[in-house]
């Protein structure tokens, strides 16, 4: 059996990323019910909201699910307390130092996976005691690594440096991409953008439609001097780009970002003034479908392409 499927207790080695304003209990439970691992994205939730989503997810699926906790937010410690209180079995941490909370989570019997964007932090994650790492390449949406290492390069680099299972992320929305990632040594894949526009995603329909309309080159990595994030091009991203070209410092960019930009864009559907986080693979996403259909299509294409390559390569 696949090492990640065995570790997480799932049918397919496919994890739905815990995305802010997209990954509530409806999406997480739908993915888990379809055989993958659904993640509730805690980054856009207060502690009580997270607790409510966990309770609803437990009621909606008998299968394993997890919570993604970005460690850069001020309420990360409160989120940790919530998952401990609610008896969550799987936690993915990201955007921060895994050594802060990993021991506390592991002592409670929780499986811990940490998201990294380079081999240095993969080694640190392993030293902190995590069970697996997500190797997230430059193509990914949302918060990203400053090194701008692509997924195809990042997977083998990290596989060389750690003995942990490696989950590939960034630019993966199909069975073909999943097969390519696993050929490079990944043990599983984490998929964000394709599930961000699923029917069960809590993102606004206007945001989903904007993603469907996106073409090649319609995203860019922004706000590198703060926390790098990949955004769809719009009025807001244009203001950020111009400010960065003008040499704007951290304070100016923080003022421009303000508060609630991601909520405005992704959850409330403000397509020009809001922050629209999505990956480069958005150019390949052409329709809004149920999460179960997305996962099924990926699995079927993976098997079909694996057979095709085995038959044609020699």
**What is the number of strand segments?**
11
Biggest sheet, spatial arrangement of strands: 1-9-8-6-5-4-3-2
Order of helices and strands: HEHEHEHEHEHEEHEHEHHEEHHHH
The average pLDDT value, as a whole number, equals: 93
Could you explain the architecture of this structure?
With 314 residues, the chain is of the alpha/beta class. It starts with a helix and ends with a helix. 44% of the residues lie in helices and 15% in strands. The mean pLDDT is 93. The chain folds into two domains: 3-202 and 283-312, Aldolase class I (TIM Barrel); 214-281, no CATH class. The chain contains 14 helices and eleven strands. It has helices spanning 3-8, 25-33, 47-60, 76-86, 102-107, 119-128, 151-161, 175-183, 193-196, 205-213, 235-245, 250-257, 261-267, 291-312; strands at residues 14-16, 38-41, 65-70, 90-94, 111-116, 132-136, 142-143, 166-169, 188-191, 219-222, 229-232. The protein has an eight-stranded parallel beta sheet. It has a three-stranded antiparallel beta sheet with strand order 7-11-10, covered by helices on one side.
Write the layout of secondary structure elements.
Elements: H1 3-8, E1 14-16, H2 25-33, E2 38-41, H3 47-60, E3 65-70, H4 76-86, E4 90-94, H5 102-107, E5 111-116, H6 119-128, E6 132-136, E7 142-143, H7 151-161, E8 166-169, H8 175-183, E9 188-191, H9 193-196, H10 205-213, E10 219-222, E11 229-232, H11 235-245, H12 250-257, H13 261-267, H14 291-312
Parallel strand pairs: 1-9, 2-3, 3-4, 4-5, 5-6, 6-8, 8-9
Antiparallel strand pairs: 7-11, 10-11
């Amino acid at each position: 059996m696949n090492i990640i499927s065995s570790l997480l207790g799932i049918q397919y080695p496919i994890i739905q990323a815990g995305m802010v304003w997209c990954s509530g209990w409806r999406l997480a439970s739908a993915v888990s019910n379809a055989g993958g691992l659904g993640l509730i994205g805690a980054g856009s939730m207060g502690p009580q909201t997270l607790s409510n989503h966990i309770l609803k997810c437990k009621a909606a699926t008998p299968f394993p699910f997890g919570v993604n906790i970005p460690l850069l937010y001020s309420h990360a410690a409160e989120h940790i307390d919530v998952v401990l209180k609610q008896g969550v079995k799987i936690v993915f941490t990201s955007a921060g130092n895994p050594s802060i909370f990993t021991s506390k989570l592991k002592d409670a019997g929780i499986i811990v996976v940490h998201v990294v964007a380079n081999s240095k932090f993969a080694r640190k994650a392993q030293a902190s005691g995590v069970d697996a790492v997500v190797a997230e390449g430059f193509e990914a949406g949302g918060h990203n690594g400053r090194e701008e290492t692509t997924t195809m390069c990042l997977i083998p680099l990290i596989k060389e440096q750690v003995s942990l299972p490696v989950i590939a992320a960034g630019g993966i929305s199909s069975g073909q991409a999943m097969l390519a990632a696993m050929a490079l040594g990944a043990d599983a894949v984490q998929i964000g953008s394709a599930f961000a526009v699923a029917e069960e995603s809590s993102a606004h329909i206007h945001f989903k439609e904007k993603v469907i309309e996106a073409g090649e080159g319609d995203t860019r990595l922004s706000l590198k001097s703060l926390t790098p994030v990949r955004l769809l091009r719009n009025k807001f991203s244009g203001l950020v780009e111009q400010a960065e070209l003008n040499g704007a410092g951290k304070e100016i960019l923080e003022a421009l970002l303000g508060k609630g930009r991601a909520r405005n864009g992704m959850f409330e559907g403000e397509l020009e003034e809001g922050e629209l986080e999505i990956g480069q693979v958005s150019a390949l996403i052409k329709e809004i479908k149920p999460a179960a259909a997305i996962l099924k299509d990926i699995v079927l294409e993976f098997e079909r392409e694996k057979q095709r390559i085995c038959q044609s390569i020699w």
